[in-house]
């Protein structure tokens, strides 16, 4: 086993690797960018080295700085985590040239699976079923259109490099192919530096089922499957293992196919073979197709660990240190069921826009494993993925595990940033998901029902107002005589509405609260406030807001009458940045006439591109930013001329 390793990553995966490595007695070196100097993974490590500025290109993608840090600190090996340099074959070669061990597959194996077209050709050779499509080198637009017509619509255009849904477009008819191809190429070039694409037959009602494999360069085993079909924008939201509806026959066939895929490239380490599965009926041995292989540890690996009892990071370290596979295929078995939910700082109703903010309060329930790279007080940076945590639960059956997931999500407390917690709760409660009857289109189809408008009740407003008025603590009323009543008013903002609540403090143990024509009495017993016997939910107050920890977190603004009217809403002529990010493209010049819906700018944030459109017809008055600018949320980018009366 190694004495010392360097973890070339950040966030929850860096913390995850450090935790296992240190449990094995291995010393861990962290690397960090300027904005991560006080990050959780830095605090956990035995030592840490600064490697550059906030942008990934200036830090976590700097192979030279990472290798120099490893050599300077005496590290013998580098664990890449996932993302950043984890699937970069040139980085593997640089690590090995420096006399260090790369904890992962060979550069050759990564290259073999790095380009989707070449990988599929290799899989056909290995006898692994693939989706009908075109993976050729001729990238002429006419050739791609011809191949799409030949395959038959609908088809998927997919970038040959990378993943995460970038450079991917669904084309339903030939008339939309040219526009979709241009968009896919542009996004692929920006994300991966490679505009080449492949064309695939689109499978209706597809399920995304993947198989965890592990090799030592000679032998390969599989650790069964995971179902990752709950996706939005081709990105996974909730994963589970094993896959619902899986039969022993299909599991055996899929596992064998995954092992063949890994053996075909002499695979070493943890990897995932992803299949697209026909979900129109029962799972069939002839109904799954190779999609891609991720030559690294997956974000969702904990659900496999939960049902197999295997620590995959431990296996990575042991095999990279020269040990053979820790067990044979016959030694592996499935026990129970597990779910993982990805908790993100994002605004779901605004189209899953990434969010930032300081996590003033962060608490996870004891019934869940919480893999997180942040703590209370940490900030969500605009430079990196906005994941807050992965919540993992396991139970003896799928029904019990799902009930535990629902409870864990309800009991998770986050304040300081908008999150997808309520959305995750709605997914976990979805009837189709509970029945195992779902595919990758579920979220898009049922988005409206998965994002119902929250409706706070008077109990929530009282809990928030009590916190604002400072009347939630016994000390606040210690000076009041029982025969003297105290009156107070609190103004709370909920979305676009203001709510006025009045309170009469009757004594140290009771308060009468009024909101409109509603009146309730809150009483305290054994330190707990309640209304009609129901305890008031817990709250957290910070930064002009109160978060009530019920219904996945209800956030009220604190309205100070002295500040009312101090700000005015915009005139509607400004196009503003909806989040912090990089101005990737500007397609507006002063004097230009634009129509409603025209794309005027592209903002890159959280590894995604967001088009900013003209909200009305008009003429560009000013362009207030330049391409390459890093802007904050709400920054004015483009101004339209005032509309004529």
From TrEMBL:
<dbReference type="GO" id="GO:0004485">
    <property type="term" value="F:methylcrotonoyl-CoA carboxylase activity"/>
</dbReference>
<dbReference type="InterPro" id="IPR011764">
    <property type="entry name" value="Biotin_carboxylation_dom"/>
</dbReference>
<dbReference type="InterPro" id="IPR011761">
    <property type="entry name" value="ATP-grasp"/>
</dbReference>
<dbReference type="InterPro" id="IPR001882">
    <property type="entry name" value="Biotin_BS"/>
</dbReference>
<feature type="domain" description="ATP-grasp">
    <location>
        <begin position="120"/>
        <end position="321"/>
    </location>
</feature>
<keyword id="KW-0547">Nucleotide-binding</keyword>
<dbReference type="Pfam" id="PF00289">
    <property type="entry name" value="Biotin_carb_N"/>
</dbReference>
<dbReference type="Pfam" id="PF02786">
    <property type="entry name" value="CPSase_L_D2"/>
</dbReference>
<dbReference type="InterPro" id="IPR011053">
    <property type="entry name" value="Single_hybrid_motif"/>
</dbReference>
<dbReference type="GO" id="GO:0005524">
    <property type="term" value="F:ATP binding"/>
</dbReference>
<dbReference type="InterPro" id="IPR005481">
    <property type="entry name" value="BC-like_N"/>
</dbReference>
<keyword id="KW-0092">Biotin</keyword>
<protein>
    <submittedName>
        <fullName>Methylcrotonoyl-CoA carboxylase alpha subunit MccA</fullName>
        <ecNumber>6.4.1.4</ecNumber>
    </submittedName>
</protein>
<dbReference type="InterPro" id="IPR005482">
    <property type="entry name" value="Biotin_COase_C"/>
</dbReference>
<dbReference type="Pfam" id="PF02785">
    <property type="entry name" value="Biotin_carb_C"/>
</dbReference>
<feature type="domain" description="Lipoyl-binding">
    <location>
        <begin position="565"/>
        <end position="641"/>
    </location>
</feature>
<dbReference type="InterPro" id="IPR005479">
    <property type="entry name" value="CPAse_ATP-bd"/>
</dbReference>
<dbReference type="InterPro" id="IPR050856">
    <property type="entry name" value="Biotin_carboxylase_complex"/>
</dbReference>
<dbReference type="InterPro" id="IPR016185">
    <property type="entry name" value="PreATP-grasp_dom_sf"/>
</dbReference>
<dbReference type="InterPro" id="IPR000089">
    <property type="entry name" value="Biotin_lipoyl"/>
</dbReference>
<feature type="domain" description="Biotin carboxylation">
    <location>
        <begin position="1"/>
        <end position="448"/>
    </location>
</feature>
<keyword id="KW-0067">ATP-binding</keyword>
<keyword id="KW-0436">Ligase</keyword>
<dbReference type="Pfam" id="PF00364">
    <property type="entry name" value="Biotin_lipoyl"/>
</dbReference>
<dbReference type="InterPro" id="IPR011054">
    <property type="entry name" value="Rudment_hybrid_motif"/>
</dbReference>
<dbReference type="GO" id="GO:0046872">
    <property type="term" value="F:metal ion binding"/>
</dbReference>
């Amino acid at each position: 086993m190694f004495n010392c390793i360097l973890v070339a990553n950040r966030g929850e995966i860096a913390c995850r690797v450090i935790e296992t490595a240190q449990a094995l007695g291995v010393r861990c070196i962290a690397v960090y960018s300027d904005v991560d100097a006080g990050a959780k993974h830095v605090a956990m490590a035995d030592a840490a080295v600064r490697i550059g500025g906030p942008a990934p290109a200036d830090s976590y993608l700097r192979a030279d700085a990472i290798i120099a840090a490893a050599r300077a600190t005496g590290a013998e090996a580098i664990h890449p985590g996932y993302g950043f340099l984890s699937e970069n074959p040139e980085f593997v070669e640089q690590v090995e040239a420096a006399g260090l061990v790369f904890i992962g597959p060979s550069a050759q194996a990564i290259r073999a699976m790095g380009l989707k077209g070449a990988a599929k050709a290799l899989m056909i050779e290995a006898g692994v079923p693939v989706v009908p499509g075109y993976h050729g080198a001729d990238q002429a637009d006419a050739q791609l259109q011809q191949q799409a017509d030949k395959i038959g619509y609908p088809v998927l255009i997919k970038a040959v490099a990378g993943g995460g849904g970038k450079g991917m477009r669904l084309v339903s008819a030939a008339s939309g192919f040219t526009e979709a191809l241009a968009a896919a190429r542009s996004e692929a070039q920006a994300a991966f530096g490679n505009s080449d694409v492949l064309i695939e037959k689109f499978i209706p009602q597809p399920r995304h089922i993947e198989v965890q494999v592990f090799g030592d360069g000679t032998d390969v085993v599989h650790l069964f499957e995971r179902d990752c079909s709950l996706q939005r924008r081709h990105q996974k939201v909730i994963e589970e293992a094993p896959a619902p509806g899986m039969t022993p026959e299909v599991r055996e066939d899929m596992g064998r196919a995954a092992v063949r895929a890994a053996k075909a490239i002499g695979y070493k380490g943890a990897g995932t073979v992803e299949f697209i599965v026909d979900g129109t009926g029962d799972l069939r041995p002839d109904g799954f197709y190779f999609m891609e292989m991720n030559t690294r540890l997956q974000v969702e690996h904990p659900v496999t660990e939960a049902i197999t009892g295997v620590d995959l990071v431990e296996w990575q370290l042991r095999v990279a240190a020269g040990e053979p596979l820790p067990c044979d295929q016959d030694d592996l078995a499935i026990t129970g069921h597990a779910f993982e939910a990805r908790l993100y700082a994002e605004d779901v109703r605004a189209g899953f826009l990434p969010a930032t903010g300081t996590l003033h309060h962060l608490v996870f329930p004891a019934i869940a494993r919480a893999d997180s790279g942040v703590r209370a007080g940490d900030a969500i940076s605009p430079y990196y993925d906005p994941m807050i945590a992965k919540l993992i639960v396991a139970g003896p059956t799928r029904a019990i595990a799902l009930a535990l997931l629902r409870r864990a999500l309800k009991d998770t407390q986050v304040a300081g940033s908008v999150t997808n917690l309520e959305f995750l709760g709605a997914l976990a409660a979805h009837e189709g998901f509970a029945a195992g009857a779902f595919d990758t289109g579920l979220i898009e189809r049922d988005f409206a029902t998965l994002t119902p408008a929250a409706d706070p009740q008077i109990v929530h407003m009282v809990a928030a107002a009590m916190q604002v008025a400072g009347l939630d603590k016994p000390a606040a009323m210690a000076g009041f005589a029982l025969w003297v009543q105290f009156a107070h008013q609190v103004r709370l903002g909920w979305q676009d509405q203001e709510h006025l609540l009045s309170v009469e403090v009757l004594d140290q143990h009771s308060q009468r609260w009024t909101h409109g024509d509603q009146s309730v009495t809150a009483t305290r017993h054994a330190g707990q406030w309640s209304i009609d016997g129901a305890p008031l939910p817990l709250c957290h107050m910070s930064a002009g807001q109160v978060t009530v920890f019920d219904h996945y977190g209800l956030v009220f603004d604190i309205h100070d009458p002295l500040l009312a009217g101090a700000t005015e809403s915009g005139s509607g002529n400004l196009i503003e940045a909806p989040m912090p990010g990089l101005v990737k493209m500007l397609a507006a010049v002063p004097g230009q006439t634009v129509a409603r819906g025209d794309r005027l700018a592209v903002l890159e944030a959280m590894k995604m591109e967001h088009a900013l459109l003209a909200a009305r017809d008009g003429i560009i008055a000013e362009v207030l930013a330049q391409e390459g600018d890093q802007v904050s949320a709400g920054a004015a980018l483009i101004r339209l001329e005032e509309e004529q009366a």
